[in-house]
Input
Amino acid sequence: MSVIYLVHPVHGAKVAIDEAEAAHDEMFGWERFEPKSAPVAEEAPAPAPAAPPVAEEAPAAPVNAMPVIKRRGRARTAPES
Output
């Protein structure tokens, strides 16, 4: 099984598994490339850390808490000793 690497300016990179698939993809703007010979993008320097976000007032109760619901059915009894 052959592996053919393809790259597209909008969709990124992909792998075709046979010549027919690669030929079909090339009709739609995909181009072949060899990953070992592809230029490696240089890493950009890390951006300076931004100022810490301003802490907002925390809500009084959690927003996603479920309400307490009364249990249905018979009341539980304590086990006899």
